Amino acid sequence: MKTHFNVVVLLANDLQRTRQYLTETLGFEVAQEHPDQTVEFKAVGGAEVALIAATAAFRAAGAYYWFIVPDFEGYYQQLRQAGANIVKPPHNTPFGKVFVVETPDGHIFTFHGGEGA
């Protein structure tokens, strides 16, 4: 059986705080919202990202999420100005130039201008 990747669901300790960080700081756009339960973000060219409220406090670990951005340098500057928690500034990797951001819950987002940008 072949599968098609559909959605990444991230836990959030404080759903509204994490929603605000993803929208106001990282520029994600909300597609659908169920107050105090879930927030779904618009998917562009790939899997959807959604948030659900955690039932117990936690710190994310063990996964990295990679996003392609068409204007790598412009987006990096936008996130710097918005106060994103940039844990690794732009640097070269075997997959091209990337930078890394951490969400309030400890999710690690890597952004690059790679193929498909």
TrEMBL record:
Transmembrane segments: none annotated. Pfam families: Glyoxalase. InterPro entries: Anthracycline_SecMetBiosynth (IPR052164), Glyas_Bleomycin-R_OHBP_Dase (IPR029068), Glyas_Fos-R_dOase_dom (IPR004360), VOC_core (IPR037523). It comes from the Bacteria. Residues 4-114 form the VOC domain. This is VOC domain-containing protein. It comes from Deinococcus xinjiangensis.
